[in-house]
Amino acid sequence: MLKNSSRNPVKAAIGGTVLALTLAGVMGSPTASARTLNITETGSTLLYPLFNLWVPAYTHSHPGVRINTQGTGSGTGISEAVSGVAQIGASDAYMSNMQMKQNPTILNIPLAISAQTVNYNIPGLNGIHLKLSGPVLAGIYDGHIRYWNAPAIAQLNPGVRLPHHLITPIHRTDGSGDTFIFSQYLSFSTPYWNSHAGYGTTISWPAVPGGLGALGNPGMVQASAQTPYSIAYIGVSFTKEVKRAHLGTAMLKNRAGRFLLPTKKTVTAAAAQLVKKTPVDERISLVFAPGAGSYPIINYEYAIVNDHQANGDMAQALRTFLSWAVDTHEGNARRFLRQVRFIALPARISALSRKQIAKIH
Amino acid sequence: MKLRPFRIVLVLVTSLIPLALLAILVFLARYSWPALTFNGWHFLTGHTWNLGNLYADPVVQRGVLAPVGANYGILVFIVGTLLTSAIALIIAVPISLGVAVFLAEGLRSRLRTPLSFVVEMLAAVPSVVYGLWGYAVLTPLVAHTLGPGLRSVLGFIPFFSGAVGSGYGLLAASIVLALMVVPIIAATVRDALAQVPSETKEAAYALGATHFEVVRRAMLPAVRGNIIGACILGLGRALGETMAVLMVSGGALNYFPGNIYSPVTTMASFIVSQLDSAMQDPTGMAVRSLAEIALILFIISVLTNIIARLLTGTSHNASAV
Description:
Chain A has 361 residues and is of the alpha/beta class. Chain A is built from 15 helices and twelve strands.
């Protein structure tokens, strides 16, 4: 984030002056273009690593724009984009109908596709991929299924010697897009969960004695690594950390009844199923998609942007940056996304995103 | 006549403090008013915190607009706050008194000043540093050493038996709080001990008291009021501590701690951890309910202060021998 400030100040000053002169020559309005534009991005901690890859590359090729990034949580991202404190609010969750009614000028623009893994720490079994389903996870998280060798789990995993140990379910204490999509998976697959706990960026977790709360994705990895016989849901951009902590990754049951791991193929397949259903405002859940090869927990990562900006320069800068971000040769290129294990937007979705970006004025 | 402008300035400046206190109270009450009417007494007795369905259209309930299924009960957090603070004080008070007596009486004067300075510096360490240490060092220690050890020694008491868990929880939070409270109490009590008139000490020595007896029978009773005052200061810090507790408490939701190793949540840390999600509530009821928690926390802090003062009688006179 601070990489830019370590640049040689003299060089930067000269660069700025040259740029200002060039721009002044092109646009003929020296006063407006003489200063650097500051874009503030804040929100989702899942998108934060991607922005940290994007910003140095983008500002290198687009001098005259400075982008400040902050990982503060999706809720903060949305509210600061609405209030105008930040120009881009990053969020793993789209805004609700009521929020849209209150803020009709806000756009929900998908930038990439993310996924989530369900991880566990069962000594001796972390090397194999246990099979788990939405109803079983709902049972674990609402306390109906207390032991790892409960019949419901054993039934999904014939031949695996499951230990008779209490399960410690770990959830996020902070408001989180990960909680949003995990609880959607439980809600969409388990009617009982849907009517009792429902989904949201924070939900009223049923009381499971010993159930643990952790802060952010790093906190989830640490709590899970430190607690034998625990289970946690973790954003896919933390796969490296999950591997380093030697946690097991579950195969999850999709709508078609197949158990899958999140790979490029299964995530792309799931996204493909919902491309046609994605509405013009792009607010849709991708969780529990139909299709035999669809991984069940994926989502759009959103930029929340007000379509009415303070001035033309800022609107122009935002349009340029966001178009760059969804471009498959630029921000959506594999060289960026593979590092955080995101998947590029399908062509039809990036076209929809571009249409929304064009509305910023 | 000459002093009048000075006096006016003094009165104005002095009244700023109670005015600020009043302003906070008025703001909290006004801001959380919709939540107060929506939640009623259930807020204090309920133990389920549920923001409701934020993606469905909100409906008018009990005269105010709120999400469907919204239900705010904070008894779990009140219990968590009081328990962590109480256990922290139980750990911290004996240690602090020991430190204070040692600094005041057990040391040569050459070492006294630098060591007292070190203790005071501990009080100046930002709480998040304690939190980070608790997160990285203390929770594994509680999970693998302290917890099992405590259980094998005190396991016959139900509160100390049962699953030790992950290290995050009541015990870890209380230890971190105790560490933050010790320097406050120790520094205050040490200062008070240093103020005990030498006549008092000499009189005790003259009666044939040993050094230990002088401290125990003459000096500590003389500073009883200061000790209580220092404990109240420490308690205030423990009740309101946010970040450090959030990092080690395990964030329990909707259930009470079963033993000393259970995850808990305190009111202050809950406000911080939930603000982000609460802001997603388009009716604003969630944020206002968080403000109501702040109001209750404020009232609890004031009440504990008053009770502590009543318990000690007129604490200011206690230092007079």
